[in-house]
Each structure stands twice: as C-alpha cells, then as structure tokens.
Amino acid sequence: MPTRAPLPIDAFLPEIVRTLANGANVLLHAPPGAGKTTRVPPAMLEAGLVGDREIVVLEPRRIAARMAARRVAHELGENVGARAGYSVRFESCVSAYTKIRFVTEGVLMRSFRDDSGLSSVAAVIFDEFHERHLEGDLALALVRRLQRCNRPDLRIVVMSATLPTGRIESFLDAKSISCPGRVWPVDIEHAEHVGDRDDKALVRQVVAGLRQCVARAPDGHILVFLPGAREIRMVAQACESIASRAGLEVLPLHGDLAPDAQDRVVAPSARAKLILTTNVAETSITIDGVTAVIDSGLARVPSFDVFSGRPTLDLVKISRASALQRAGRAGRTAPGRCLRLYTRRDFEHRPEHHVPDVQRLDLASTLLELRTAGVHDLAGFEWFEPPSLASIDAAERLLLRLGATTAVGGALTQLGRHMAAFPLHPRHARVLLEGARRGATELGATVAALLSERPLRREVDEGLRHACDADVVRDAEAVLAGEVDRMFATRIHRAKRQLLELMQHEAPTMAKSALSHRSEPVDVAIRMALLHGFPDRVARMRNNAGAGATLVLCGGGSAILGSESGVHAELLVAIDLEQRRQGGVGSLRVRSAVAIEPEWLLDAFPERISEHTRWSFDADAQRVVGMSELRYDDLVLDATVARAFGPEAAAVLRDAALAADRSYWLNEPKRLDLLLDRVRFAAKHSTELGVLTDADVKTCLRELCEDRTSFAELREVDLVRVLEAKLTPEQRRVLVRFAPMHVELASGRTARVHYPIDGSPYVESWLQDFYGTTSTPTIADGRVSLVVHLLAPNRRPVQITTDLASFWTKHYPELRKALSRRYPKHAWPEDPIKWA
Description:
By secondary structure, the chain is an alpha/beta fold.
C-alpha cells in the first residue's frame, strides 16, 4: 500500500468512527484539503462499520466522484473499481468487491427506486453538502426518513466546509465534529473600483490580474475563477501570450470536459499551470500547488421561473462563503494570494450563502422521485428545507401535462412509472418513451442522451449553419456520423447504450415497437416525440424567418430564435429555452428547436385546443372587426374573419364610442348636451322630472349598439330622440314648461336658451331684437330670469344684464354713441323702448 501523506483529518478519524459505532450521526466541519473526502470512508471501512454492505459517498458533481474514487483507490494501493469505485450518470466503475462507492446525488435517488430500504448500504456520506444541490437535499430527507422508520442501523455523515451547524444538527440529531484545516496565510487584495462588467471588461481585468501574479513570480499554479465555459475560452485566448512568456500551461476546467482532460488539470506537474475554471473548483476537487487565485466574483447559476415554467441562467455575484472557498484554494500547500476583481465593499454586502437549489430550481424530477418512493403527502413530507408551494405546483402541472401523473390525486400513471426508471429529466424520458412507441427507439435514445447533456456547441457563422427540421436530430446525426468531438461522442454513445438497456428492461413493449412497421418516417416520429416532451414550449414565428426571428410562445410572452438553431419553420417547439439576466435585464433565447405541424397538436392534445373570437375596433374604418381564432393554449394556430356578431362585438362598439369624441358617432352632438342640460335644470324646479345622467346615456348607447358594428350605423340613429322617448308624456310637458329650448323676443324672433352647468341660463341675440321691451325674459314658470347677452353687429356682446329696464336708461346712451359711429348703417334710436 502506498505511503499516505498525513492530513489534518487523520487525528479526528477515531472520534468519527467511535461516534458512528455508537449509533449517532455525524456532522463533520472541515475546510477543503483537510482530507475528509478521501480519509473518512476508508476509516469507516477499516473499523468494520460496513460488514457485507457498502459506503455510498454522495458528491455534487461527476468530476468530483471520479477523482475522489481514484484518489482513494490509489491510497488503498488498488485500481479504481476494486474496493473504491464510482457510479455517475451513464458511467460506472465498480465491481463485486466495491465497498466504497462515490456517486452523484441522482444515482442514490435511483437506488431508492430499485431498493427503497437501501439494503446493500451501510452508510451514506453527504460530501460538500453546503453546496445545497436539489438532489442532495432530497436524498438527505429520504435517507433520514428511512433511518427513522425502517433502518435505524443506517449511518449518516454530512461533511461540509461552510454550512451553518444548528439546523442540520437538529434535523439529523447529529454530533458536530470540527476539524481545522492545514491552511497557509492568504493575502487577499480587492479591486479599488470596478466599472462596467461586460465580457470585454472582465477579460481586461483578468489579464491585468495575471500580469500582477506573473510579475511577483509565484511558485505554483494560478487558479482563475470565471462564470462559465464561454468566458474561459475568451480569457484563454487573451492570456495566451502572457502565459507563454511565463512558462504557464493554460488548462480549462469545467463540467463539459472529458475525464482525461479533467485529470490532466489535477495531476501533479513540474510545470506551472494557469487553470481557468468555473465554480467546479471551489470545493468539489482539490488541486495541489495553487499559490495564486484570481476571483471574478461571478458565477452562472441555473434557476427556474415557477410562473412561466421556463429555465433561466443568471449571471450572479457569488456569496461570501463561496468567495472564502475560492480564496482558500491559494493556501493549501504554501502561503498564497487572492486577487478579487471586486471591491471590499462589494464583498461585505454580498449574502453569506447562496440560495439552495430547492428554492430556485425545477422540481419536476424531484416530485417524480418522491412519487416513486411512495411519498404522496408532499405537504407533510419532512424536507430539510422545504420548497415554495408555487414551485411544487409548477412541477405538479408539468408532470400532469407530460402524462406522468393523474389529474385527481397526482398518482403515478403507468407512463409515469416508466419515466421514473430512466436517469433523465421527465421531459427527456417522455421523449425517449414516445420515440420508442412510434418505432424510433434507437434515434430516440440518442436524442434523449443529447438532451440530458449540455447542448452541443455549434458554429454560428452563416456559412457553417444549415437549415433543419430539428436541431437535436441534426446533432444526433452528427454524433452518429463521427462529426463531433470524440470524447463527447463517446459520452453520448455510452449514455445511449444504457438507455437502450433500460428500455429493454423497463418498457419492453415500447422497445419492441421499434421492430414493427413504422407508420411514419423516423424523423417525423422523433419530432412528434419531442413535442410530447415539451408540449408547453410550442411557439410561432412572428416576423422574419430564421435566426433573430421573434417567437410567440403558447404560454405567453416571446423569445428570440438564436443563431445556433437551423430551424426556420413557422410553427416550432423551443427545446433549449434559456433566459439570461444580467444587470437587471432579461432576454429569452431559443438555442434549439424542432419544426412541427399544426395537425400534430390537434391529434395529440385535443384538450388544449380551443376556439375564440377576438373582437377589436378598427379606428381607421370606424367599425368593429372580429377574428375567429383556433388556439393551442394561448397561441393562435389559425385565424379567419368572423361573420356572426354578438354581445361581445356590441360591447366593443360601445366602449369605442364612449372613448371617442361624440362627433364621430353622433349627429349634432350639441343637441345631446342641450337635452341633458335642460333636464338637469328642469329637475331643480319640478319633482315630476328626474335627472338624465351619463349613466343613462351609456345605457341607451348600449342598447343602440346591439346588432350594430360601426359608427356609421350609430349616426343613422337619433340618440336624442331615443332618450326623449324614454320620458313620459307628462315629463316631456314639464320639460318644455320649465326648460324651453327657445324664448320669443319683442322683435318676433326666437332666441335659443343656454343651460350651462356652472352658471345661470342665458340667451343671446342682437341688441336691436330687444328694442321695445323692458322686461327680462324668464323661464321655469317665471321663477328664473334669463341672463341676456346683447350682441353688437359683430356678434360680440356689448352688455350682459338681467335688468333690461336699467340697461336702457343707464348704459345704452353711451353705448349708442360708440355703436352708431362704428356701425352707421344700423338703427340706433335715442329711445329704444318706444322703437317699433
């Protein structure tokens, strides 16, 4: 057996083993590099705590599971797959002798389906639990539930570097053990100020930071934390010349890399490395020899919008705990330094920990796992930290729509049980099973394997992109033809084989249908299968075809068709839909799509098809127009001009009339105002007449709009006469008596009576029309004297009065002099009272 270098955890192994032997759970606090991952499982094995069972160690990432297994196997003096092995999705390296099995969290969840009592497991170790992955939270809840009910002998160890203690200790009834790490001092520097944080600015900051590190000649590797693989590629290109002059080997590290490329990063090397990594290197793996860290302070974090049902990928600031983890990577083997590309104030205002996955991710797979494990009361399930009710409801709706659960009670259907058997998201499992049912099992397995991995990167240059009916089918054909990266193709082929093996075991009837006569071409079968897996992602092209086109989504909202997609169909399904938020601005982008036909929706989802007539008012034509629409959810599939008009059309016409100026739909609108003013005035002086209000006008207008569709038709109806007709004969007599439309003047002419809302009734006419009279006209049975506007020949008032007699004696003589000079052709008698 190789000689093992001493690690800080070694001194605590006896206490850990003793606590577990006494039947207590353990919460182990130890910083990265303390040795908890590689030393605790072998110590439990050597202490005889396993018997004929195995220790399962949960790792948050596949890369961590593989590397930890190899490290433990090396320290045991064996090849990986002997007493220490690993099982990750679509890949396993174990044997009949394996006692320590490093797995990703999803693998343990599938173990519950095959053996709900975990009869072959002696202990479950949750490594790096502070990362709070969704499946890790669920696995902890299920393991604790099992321990309390049927397996009190099952041992649980939770290991973490930064997790707060109180809650987890209470949940597990665990003993907390803290192990100090072997930490060298790390000198932390913050940026003095930070401007724009776009891609170019980030690259410039990293390049400047690298120059500082190289100038100080660090004796070790330089680790640069970046948000994602795209930023890694940009920085690698920008730093190439600096790294070459400094003798640094530039190596990327992220989850998409092949295992051998990942091993190369962590393997011992005499040459210094410039390692460009995502947050995968925060805690999941250990890289010896790092003496300098450049921390962008950013990470790209997946999330889920429970209201739209769409995934998001947000560029966020990391938590303070993550920042401390990153800085600690520089102090593992020697004093180090960490250059943070953000200010100290920024660091101090960041949250202490990031939001757990259970509060921000899609729960569809989680709920399917719980249903399979026999958990039916989700509200009563003892989560370590419960998700929101909105998240649970969104997941329930998706499972129901995929056909995995029943509408009443949410019980698993036969299809749902088949879907749960595959290490896939329920959407992808639905695609696999529907493809098999339609006789396209092999291509369906390839497509499902591709969907379960990160999207295949494609050149977006116009000369390299070609049109297709389904991006993922195009990618599957490229994999089968050997046109992609060899390691990526190997991973897809391995996943495909495992899916086909599971298909033979779990759904043999569907698998055999691939051998039967196909009723449709295989590419059509797969496109229809993709529709069944993503029935809530149907979209229609709104404007131009091709990249950059706007898509209208069946669930509401819109998206942009990305340049990565070669699908140019009018109707399609958004397979890879990604919403990115940066600086408070979000954009929804479709990276992968599949073309579909409208009749597929009618055949597959008749319950989602509805007919609606949408009425609107055409302001130019001044008429109501209607479109009869055939919809899938909220998406219009077909629209025709409506021929039959009903109450909805009448309501649209009424609302348009009320919003428009009356002159558009009413002949002589002043007549309406006069009628309303007269009724209002007369009602003040007679109890026999009520007031006509705007509400009465609206009611009358509503009646007139029935069976009419345009302003022109409304103009043909005399609204004033209709309103007057609503008055009784007696009310009409009262109206004429108390509020006449006109009064007769001494000249024999009549003058219209005006009834202003905020003033007294008045008449206006030529001054000459009042010659010969001293009495002011009255209305309301003589109770109200009219205000008289005496007009000059230019129709402007020269006097306003309610006392004609006084006017003639006091004011007229002076006015006569001025008016006779200005208007000599008109009569201006000295005594207008005697004028006849």
